[in-house]
Amino acid sequence: MSTVNRRVLPGFGLSLGYTMFYLSLLVLIPLAACFWKAAELSWADFWEAVATPRAIAAYRLTFTASITAAAVNVVLGLIVAWTLVRYEFPGKRLVDALVDIPFALPTAVAGMIYANVYMPNGWLGQFLVPLGIEAAFSRTGIVVVLIFTGFPFVVRTVQPVLEDLDAETEEAAGVLGANRWQTFRRVILPSLIPPTLTGFTLAFARAVGEYGSVVFISPNTPGTEIAPMLILALHLESAQRESAASEAAAIAVVLLVASFTLLILINLLERWSQRHAQ
Amino acid sequence: MPSDRPSRNDPWYVRYTLIALTLGTVGLLILLPLVNLFVQAFAEGATAYWNSLFHNADTRHSIFLTLMVAPVSVALNTVFGVAAAWAIARFRFPGRAILTTLIDLPFSVSPVVVGLLFVVLLGSKTPLGGWLLEHDYRVIFAPPGIVLVTMFVTFPFVARELIPIFEAVGSEEEIAARSLGATGWQMFWRITVPNIKWGLLYGIILCNARAMGEFGAVAVVSGKIGGRTDTMPLQVQKLWEGQSNADTASAFALASVLTLLSLATLFIKVGIERKFRDERTKIE
Fold it and tell me: Are residues B19 and B60 in the same domain?
């Protein structure tokens, strides 16, 4: 098909050439420049830059907050996807449309409203703060806002799989005497595992890089800095201290390697999901 | 339908519990913050809302800047997206799978890192940035840098929407047009573009929403110079951190404009999806 198409359809050279040119200029060269900048440091200096107590605290917070938020998203996402596919209720289409809001809403706006809602005099804060739950300007707040930004992922990966689920297998299980819970655990759940894992990883990957919403709700005190905030702080320091620029690049490289690994993982998971669905 | 299949029906208490949890989740996580935003934005009435938006010169400029940056980035990414989707969906060549992954790459890079990439490449202390400055061309701390990072973060949108559509539509009509003597561009404008128009619009809208709302990447390259390099999301932050009540009111007003934009995006998106489904059922 390939050679046939190239003879019949025009524009192979032009479209591929332009794609490669644009991709290199906008994505590959800037990425290479960052690795180059980090490579100005010797190995020892690189390790020192990426393993300062401040950096390690930032990775730890980024990682734990992201994984907690993604785990909560799995629970919420499975419930919402199941309800949207299986049940009828008034306002269902509105709820379905609202699920996508976190993708469309600018992260800065999300961070600002969340801080406002959970402040001691905010709509939810006035009830939660007396109970000792301070979600604005705290680590809890970081997790809460990350739950918001990653919310659609699990819903949107699980929903289509649930829709395509073969009704007959499920009925057969019922006819053969399985109760509803057994049918769910033995028949439905196994096919939901690949899309759930994909959704979890997508939400996690998104949370690891998230900055805009977190910066509004983080207390900005030492120890509540996520990795992207640390990069920005070092970048701003570089005006006074030349070496801070390389340190920022070094930590950016750590973050880049983490997100590329996650990207590959997501690709593998998606391929696995597709094979599972067939 | 659930009612016809008793063995697929869940007991009523499970059903009601799950519906309640869903409504609670979406209500608390999404609806309540949105309502809160609009209530705050319009707390002092429509006139105050208008004044919050347009009485401050810096806020006005941020709206102007966002309305300049987003269309430029979206237009360039649209041309790229069509070219990339054409190459990837219509032809087979070595490295095609890698190219597809590389196109998705920008989505996985943290916005702050995106900003840093361009500062490292084009900042005033770098060879390239220094050379550009000598020729009086400022990229970092100026609108061109904002356009570049916006292009980076919205890079995959159009291509990603179009590739599956190109594949679904197939190339029969294009091949027919060619064999009947159409030139390449005739085929493109009369066959290809009409076939992909809804997907193209969908990609452009998603791209635009993200372009207008980008915060982290712009924060790094713009230098946050009020009245010059602050886009709407950055101005929201500045106003929110401001001390006076008027600033806070303006922050809510400006944020509500961004929110209305994203709500409009979702609205159009749902409309296009419905259109899509109708056309597909018509074909079937």
Answer: no
Q: Which CATH architecture has domain A42-277?
A: Orthogonal Bundle (1.10)
Question: Is A55 in a helix, a strand, or coil?
Answer: helix
Considering only CB atoms, which chain B residues are within 8 Å of A31? Answer: 117
Q: How far is CA A32 from CA A28, A36, A63, A203, B5, in A?
A: 6, 6, 25, 26, 57
Number of domains in chain B: 2
Q: String of b and e for A102-139 (b: at least 16 CB within 10 Å)?
A: bbbbbbbbbbbbbbbbbbeebbbbeebbeeeebbbbbb
ipTM of the complex: 0.90
Phi first, then psi: give them for residue B45, nearest 5 degrees. 95, 170
pLDDT for A118-168, tens place per residue? 988 889 988 898 888 888 888 899 999 999 999 999 999 999 999 988 788
**B4 lies in some domain:** no
The residues near A230 (Cβ < 8 Å, ≥ 6 apart) are A54, A55, A58, A251
Q: In degrees to the nearest 10, what's the CA dihedral of A250, A234, A66, A265?
A: -20
- B84–A97 C-beta distance less than 8 A: no
Question: Do the chains contact at B110 and A210, CB–CB below 8 Å?
Answer: yes
Q: Which amino acid, B227?
A: G
Angstrom distance (rounded) from CA A114 to CA A272: 36
